[in-house]
Design a protein that fits this description.
Blueprint: H1 4-12, E1 15-20, E2 26-29, E3 32-33, H2 34-37, H3 41-59, H4 70-83, H5 85-88, H6 92-99, H7 103-111, H8 114-119, H9 121-132
Helix pairs in contact: 3-4, 4-9, 6-7, 7-9
Length: 138
């Protein structure tokens, strides 16, 4: 016997990227009208945890990742969350500094970027977190 979930997926389809439904409402998943209904805080926090886990997994591909303390790991997860991993990998100077464990230069490289000009306070806070190894509070 087909479950209600399976029936709804068959009727609505399962779409993992936003789309416009027949009523032209922004929709995602199985017919979730996010334009009118949005999402709950629990759903937003679940997605955040998933995105943090994905960012962490991507950063684990660097051999120097395990040598970082938790505060600096969190700093980089925050960057990857914001930039996306493909863009983060273009920060060659920063990555080289991390390989050398030169956190002062890594911090400077973070600030000397188009990203820092775009996100301003976030970049300053994260650069200071990278430099000191201490969590910053904005």
């Amino acid at each position: 016997m087909e479950s209600l979930e399976d029936q709804l997926i068959r009727h609505e389809a399962l779409r993992l990227k936003p789309y416009r439904c027949t009523s032209q409402k922004l929709t995602i998943g199985v017919g979730r009208n996010i334009e009118d209904n949005g999402i709950t805080e629990d759903e937003a926090r679940f997605m955040l945890k998933t995105d943090i886990d994905r960012s962490r997994k991507e950063l684990e591909s660097f051999y120097w990742w395990e040598d970082l303390d938790e505060v600096r790991k969190d700093c980089l997860i925050n960057m990857v969350f914001n930039l996306g991993f493909p863009t983060f990998k273009k920060f060659k100077g920063l990555i080289s500094d991390l390989e050398d464990k030169n956190y002062k230069m890594a911090s400077a490289n973070m600030l000397d970027s188009r990203w820092a000009k775009q996100v301003k306070g976030r970049a300053k806070e994260l650069a200071e977190q990278m430099r000191t190894g201490e969590r910053q509070h904005g």
